[in-house]
Amino acid sequence: YNVRWDWYKEIGAPDFKDKYEYIDVLEQMVAKHPETENGQKVYATGLAGSLFTEWYENGAFTKPAMSNMWTFGGYLYMESFDDGELINGYTNLERSAYWSDMEFYNILYNKGLLDPDSFTMTADQRTEKIVNGQYAAAMNWAHGNLYSTNLEKDPNTLAGFIQVPNEASLVFADYHQVTGFFPSNYHFIAAKADEDAKRGALSLLNVLHDTEVGRIMQSGIEGVHWDYENGIPKPKSETIELRNLGGDNWYKTGIGLEFSFGMFQSSFLAEDNYPISLFDTDEIRASALNPLQKDVAEYYNVDYPAQAHMKLVNEGKTVSMANCYSELNQSATEVMPTDIQRILTQCNDILFEAVPSLVQAKTEEEFNTIRDSILAELESTGEKTAWDWCLKANTDAQSFTRPIIETLDW
Questions:
Q1: Please, which residues bridge with residue 163 across strands?
Q2: pTM of the model
Q3: Hey, what long-range contacts does 30-37 have (CB within 8 A, 24 or more apart)?
């Protein structure tokens, strides 16, 4: 759950422990700022709702789901980060990310807090509204350019979105990616390729798996962007300053632009036993904060904002991703048959088409009536057959990976 920091701080930055208290916080923020300076209506949030994932993604990372939405690709069977259980997001009303978000957005809509354009809006249209200051929160990672836009006007601005440390949300940390960055990033060399082509392809893969190259991609060039100090690799002060300021000058360094090309997470250790991203250390995180991040860190009395989130994990009030091996399990899962994919595609279509009627239901009774009709429609597609197959496939995969996990020393 995130908020626009300056508005949140204005109402006393109240704690919240679930989505209902979060909605109350957003309502207070909008009450203080019902319109932008240009007279545009302000909402709690808005979605790029022409994408189905928008309508369950936020629910996946918050209670009661706390689940990995990539467990079976774009289908709603998700492994829980909390207990590893496979959750049926179509029919499990207690833990489904979709049904949790439907209730969440239905409450917002009936309070007049959800942008009504959410059903048809594109990501670009939403970003425009974010930049215009029309939202108190930005769901689903869509923080847009609110902070950078305001930073151009005021170098000390606090008008930006931050993720609030709270007991209702998963902390995106401690993920043990045994199979590498993502198991879906497979690379194949055609069997019919000639020997020169194979050698060329392998030489490229060797480069991509070279930690020295990874260091260049994520930290820049030694002697230009970073150097060793007493045997410890550290970014230069001017590099940190460029990173803090962002914009074209930082973009032109090329640092951090390799997301779809690199093979390593930023915390992967290079040959010198330090992360390939030299910004991925406590010292640099604390020294590389922009004014917004500094203000948040000071408010929560930590060196940098993520520590406030990890404090809740360490106190047992929420969870990180430390006990979930979804991606390892996914790589050991049998390929889904076409007939099962067909059923689940139908199920997705049913849920996506139901979004407007569920979100705009005027009463709890109307919402439940629509919900029950949808559950009956899902049953008629053979969803139970798909669930049985996926549950067995996931159970078999977990049985296969468990001995591997037990040998790991993190």
A1: 2
A2: 0.87
A3: 30/113, 30/136, 32/7, 33/7, 33/136, 36/132, 36/133, 36/134, 37/133
**Total Cβ atoms within 10 A of residue 236:** 16
Distances (CA, A) of 295 to 28, 72, 75, 136, 282: 21, 39, 39, 18, 17
- Residue type present at position 308: A
What pLDDT score was predicted for residue 174? 86
Q: At CA 18, angle to CA 13 and CA 19, rounded to 5?
A: 90
Closest to 159 in 3D by CA, of 126, 135, 128, 142? 135
| Residue-wise pLDDT tens digits, 22-64 | 999 999 999 999 999 999 999 999 999 999 999 999 999 999 9
The Cα 169–Cα 19 span in angstroms is: 10
Work out the average pLDDT over 350-369.
98
Per DSSP, the residues of 190-214 read -TTS-HHHHHHHHHHHHHHT-HHHH
Q: How confident is the model at residue 124 (pLDDT cuts 50, 70, 90)?
A: very high
The answer to whether 50 touches 124, Cβ cutoff 8 Å, is: no
**Cβ–Cβ under 8 Å, residues 372 and 357:** no
Residue for token pair 């006393």: 12
Backbone dihedral angles phi then psi of residue 36, each to the nearest 5 degrees = -80, 175
Query: Which residues have CB under 8 Å from 163's CB, separation 6+?
Result: 1, 2, 169, 305, 309
> What size, in residues, is the chain?
410
Task: Give the Cα separation of 7 and 123 in Å (integer).
Answer: 23
Q: Look up residue 295 and give its amino acid.
A: D
Tokens of 177: 């990616």
Q: Are 16 and 312 in contact (CB under 8 A)?
A: no
Backbone CA torsion sign across 80, 84, 89, 95 = negative
